[in-house]
Q: What sequence folds into this?
């Protein structure tokens, strides 16, 4: 829609409606009295301009009724608005006693935020919906101003002195956070987000040390990548015609088709992933795909190595089972009469955003089937 442009930020805190009521009342009164004065000026200018035929013989110098009207009525309105504004001011700066305290440090040019349990954030503030939150703030260098338009919240952040503000978020979502006081050359970049979360999700977020999902160990991340790129399609719990098993491979001697041998250390395992045809295990051919940098980063390879070293790449290892409670082995079956699918493919992470479906011999490999949630 061409006119779908909001006149104000959303009301996302408990104090926002009260704040807006005062603001719009002041705006309405300003427009009203400005209109009256403007209309009077225009009327008198036109009526009594030079050359008009009007009676100027009996000018009025005083009118008690008029003077009382324009004195008492504006006075009453001013006192009402003063009371309303003072109430909002006091309410915003008087935090409830059971408010959850969060600490904020302003510095050129970022907001550093710390929760009571030690979770730290930069330029992002996570808060629960429906709970009173009190911010205790101080500046590390110059004067800043913590400003969240959607909460109608602003307070100066002063060096050498604590200031505080509180709010109760009423809408789940992400809202702009600004510094509203010129604080140096990069003042315009001192901005961030306030993320309002469901109370249960917020508690989980705090328990996970500020992570949206539980942190994965290297072995767990390696198990996820091991399955998503299709390693489990061939490397099972035992040697098969398709590929050798990786169970207990680390530190073992590997004999190759050319008669040479090496100990399976980190260097060998990495080379077997990125250049699998340099050392082909005796009894096997050039059947393993070559993984490029676009498919596996160095971090991915390190995680896969950690998984192989701790579990041997088997689905019943602790690393694999922690990835998904629904991870179960896929039973061996025939796929249109072709080679049986690997017996140890893990149907974990269904669906997985980083799952890479693969096709072998014209049919989806087990990892691809598992990633798509298809029963083989």
A:
């Amino acid at each position: 829609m061409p006119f779908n442009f909001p006149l104000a930020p959303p009301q996302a805190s408990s104090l926002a409606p009260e704040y807006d009521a005062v603001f719009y009342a002041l705006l309405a009164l300003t427009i009203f009295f400005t209109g009256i004065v403007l209309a009077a000026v225009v009327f008198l200018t036109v009526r009594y301009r030079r050359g008009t035929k009007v009676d100027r013989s009996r000018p009025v110098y005083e009118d008690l009724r008029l003077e009382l009207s324009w004195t008492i009525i504006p006075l009453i309105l001013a006192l009402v608005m003063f009371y309303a504004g003072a109430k909002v001011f006091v309410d915003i700066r008087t935090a409830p006693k059971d408010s959850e305290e969060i600490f904020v440090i302003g510095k050129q040019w970022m907001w550093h935020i710390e929760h009571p349990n030690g979770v730290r954030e930069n330029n992002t503030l996570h808060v629960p919906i429906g709970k009173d939150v009190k911010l205790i703030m101080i500046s590390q260098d110059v004067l800043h101003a913590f400003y969240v338009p959607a909460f109608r919240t602003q307070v100066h952040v002063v060096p050498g002195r604590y200031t505080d503000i509180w709010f109760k978020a009423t809408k789940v979502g992400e809202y702009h956070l600004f510094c509203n006081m010129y604080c140096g050359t990069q003042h315009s970049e001192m901005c961030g987000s306030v993320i309002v979360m469901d109370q249960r999700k917020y508690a989980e977020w705090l328990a996970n040390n500020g992570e949206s999902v539980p942190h994965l160990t290297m072995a767990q991340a390696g198990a996820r990548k091991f399955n998503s790129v299709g390693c489990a399609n061939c490397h099972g719990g035992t040697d098969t015609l398709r590929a050798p098993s990786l169970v207990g491979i680390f530190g073992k001697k590997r004999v190759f088709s050319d008669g040479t041998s090496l100990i399976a250390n980190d260097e060998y395992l990495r080379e077997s992933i990125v250049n699998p045809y340099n050392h082909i295990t005796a009894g096997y051919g050039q059947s393993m795909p070559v993984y490029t940098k676009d498919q596996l980063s160095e971090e991915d390879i390190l995680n896969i190595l950690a998984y192989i070293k701790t579990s041997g790449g088997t689905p019943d290892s602790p690393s694999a089972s922690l990835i998904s409670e629904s991870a179960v082995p896929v039973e061996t079956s025939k796929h249109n009469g072709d080679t049986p699918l690997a017996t140890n493919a893990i149907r974990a992470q269904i669906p997985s955003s980083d799952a890479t479906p693969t096709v072998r011999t014209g049919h989806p490999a087990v990892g691809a089937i598992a990633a798509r949630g298809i029963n083989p």
Observations:
- The chain has a mean pLDDT of 77.
- The first helix runs from residue 16 to 47.
